[in-house]
């Protein structure tokens, strides 16, 4: 069992239930999934980029990514319908907790001038959206094999009912927030 998952079950769940004043332990918020997305606008000109990015993206996520396709044509972006424009991975279960642990303890402290995550990064349902500017801050990505630094978006979906519950859950899991 993952370290963070074990900590959630043994320590955090009870504290969180008490703090939020919940009577039923099943109503306690939890992380349900993590979606990692990377946009590859240059893939429309160079299809070889998809293969390069797929290698390190699968290394940092721990599973193979799915290529995302354009839903409709947009002439101003020179994108046609069905064209590959990015990749995404949805993590659940042990892989999700392993990635979250790595994100909190290794990756975010390596971000240059990192002062914590803004509370404005939450949506109204307690889900957190984080944008990372470089993929090379992940320990699995080999710096020499990367041709260009690319950003990626991480969405942490929780079962929380509002921002406050989601923030409290992620604070207990070790997510650094600005004060």
UniProtKB/TrEMBL annotation:
GO terms for biological process: translation. Residues 24-79 form the Large ribosomal subunit protein uL5 N-terminal domain. InterPro entries: Ribosomal_uL5, Ribosomal_uL5_bac-type, Ribosomal_uL5_C, Ribosomal_uL5_dom_sf, Ribosomal_uL5_N. It comes from the Bacteria. GO terms for cellular component: ribonucleoprotein complex; ribosome. Residues 85-177 form the Large ribosomal subunit protein uL5 C-terminal domain. The keyword Thylakoid does not apply. GO terms for molecular function: rRNA binding; structural constituent of ribosome; tRNA binding. This is 1 of the proteins that bind and probably mediate the attachment of the 5S RNA into the large ribosomal subunit, where it forms part of the central protuberance. In the 70S ribosome it contacts protein S13 of the 30S subunit (bridge B1b), connecting the 2 subunits; this bridge is implicated in subunit movement. Contacts the P site tRNA; the 5S rRNA and some of its associated proteins might help stabilize positioning of ribosome-bound tRNAs. Belongs to the universal ribosomal protein uL5 family. Part of the 50S ribosomal subunit; part of the 5S rRNA/L5/L18/L25 subcomplex. Contacts the 5S rRNA and the P site tRNA. Forms a bridge to the 30S subunit in the 70S ribosome. This is Large ribosomal subunit protein uL5. It comes from Candidatus Daviesbacteria bacterium GW2011_GWC2_40_12.
């Amino acid at each position: 069992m993952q370290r963070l998952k074990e900590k959630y079950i043994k320590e955090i769940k009870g504290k969180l239930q008490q703090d939020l004043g919940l009577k039923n332990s099943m109503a306690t918020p939890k992380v349900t999934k993590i979606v990692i997305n990377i946009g590859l606008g240059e893939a429309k000109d160079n299809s070889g980029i998809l293969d390069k990015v797929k290698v390190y993206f699968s290394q940092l996520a721990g599973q193979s990514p799915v290529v995302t396709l354009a839903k409709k044509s947009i002439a101003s972006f020179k994108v046609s319908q069905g064209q590959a424009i990015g990749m995404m991975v949805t993590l659940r279960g042990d892989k999700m907790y392993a990635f979250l642990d790595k994100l909190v303890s290794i990756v975010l402290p390596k971000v240059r001038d990192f002062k914590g995550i803004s509370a404005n990064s939450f949506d109204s349902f307690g889900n957190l959206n984080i944008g990372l500017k470089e993929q090379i801050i992940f320990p699995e990505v080999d710096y020499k094999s990367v041709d260009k630094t690319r950003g990626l978006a991480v969405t942490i979906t929780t079962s929380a009912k509002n921002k406050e519950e989601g923030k409290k859950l992620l604070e207990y899991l070790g997510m650094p927030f600005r004060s």
